[in-house]
Automatic annotation (TrEMBL):
It comes from Eufriesea mexicana. Keywords: Endoplasmic reticulum, Magnesium, Membrane, Receptor, Transferase, Transmembrane, Transmembrane helix. Pathway: Protein modification; protein glycosylation. Its main location: endoplasmic reticulum. Belongs to the UPP synthase family. The chain crosses the membrane at residues 7-29, 80-102. This is ditrans,polycis-polyprenyl diphosphate synthase [(2E,6E)-farnesyldiphosphate specific]. Its cofactor is Mg(2+). It is found in: Endoplasmic reticulum membrane. GO terms for molecular function: ditrans,polycis-polyprenyl diphosphate synthase [(2E,6E)-farnesyl diphosphate specific] activity.
Length: 250
């Protein structure tokens, strides 16, 4: 009996690997066809993104990019920021569980200013407890960029639980005052809307602990071939998001 179960398990794993290989081959073919099409009709990234924005009806308002364990992602961030600003997406969050981007925030800002100086005036770097409305500050429409790590995910829930427990013990807050509205206020200290679209670097569709209380209705997609994302990949995923029906639990 054990041998039978073992053989069944092997067959299941083989089937999954085969399906994954088929999906990767299809993605490669899709990317090649897209590259041929765009190379004949579009000469620059801006032209491509402009064409995409004119063709699709629904753009995400907030995108979260999940790097997981991947590091050295500064140049990826610079390119993605440029694409989002071109499309007018007002909120971008970058999450890496190791905190690499937070530790290298100055490097990211430096490379952004060096490579894309035209974007600097269109960006506001989001910090905790800095209130804003619809990405509008200083009377100019700007894109809000947030750098997140594990502290902003499940770990923040743990820290908030400890803080509230200490507050109840010291009498700072009453137990009956702890409700859903209070938790939502504390956990959404950055004031940004919930992400509409999540893009995950890697083969595995895992959120790596990113914003578990704010991604209830987020559409997650893994990036093709877990390598550097091209503007063609970005455009393809936006088209895929545009076709999805978000029913919000209905």
């Amino acid at each position: 009996m054990f041998t039978v179960f073992r053989m069944v398990l092997i067959l299941i794993h083989f089937s999954c690997d085969l399906f994954t290989a088929f999906c990767n081959c299809f993605m490669i073919l899709r990317r090649k066809c897209t590259e041929i099409w765009y190379s004949e009709n579009l000469r620059t990234e801006v032209e491509m993104l402009t064409r995409i924005s004119n063709r699709i009806k629904k753009l995400p308002r907030h995108i979260v990019i999940i790097f997981g364990a991947k590091e050295d992602t500064v140049f990826d961030c610079v390119r993605i920021i440029g694409w989002c600003i071109t499309l007018g997406i007002p909120y971008i969050s970058f999450f890496d569980i190791s905190g690499y981007l937070i530790r290298n925030e100055n490097l990211l800002k430096y490379e952004l200013a060096r490579r894309r100086p035209d974007l600097v005036e269109h960006i506001n770097w989001n910090k905790p407890n800095t209130g804003f409305t619809n990405g509008i500050t200083d009377s100019k429409l700007k894109t809000r960029i947030s750098l997140l790590s594990s502290v902003d995910g499940k770990q923040e829930i743990v820290l908030l639980t400890k803080t509230l427990a200490d507050a109840v013990v010291t009498g700072t807050i009453k137990l009956e005052e702890i409700n859903i509205d209070l938790l939502d206020e504390k956990l959404n200290s950055r004031g940004i809307p919930d992400p509409d679209l999540g893009l995950i670097y890697g083969h595995i569709c895992s959120t790596y602990g990113v914003l578990p209380w704010q991604t209830r209705v987020t559409e997650f997609y893994t990036l093709p071939l877990h390598v550097t994302m091209s503007v063609k990949d970005f455009a393809y995923l936006l088209e895929k998001y545009n076709k999805c029906e978000q029913r919000y639990g209905k």
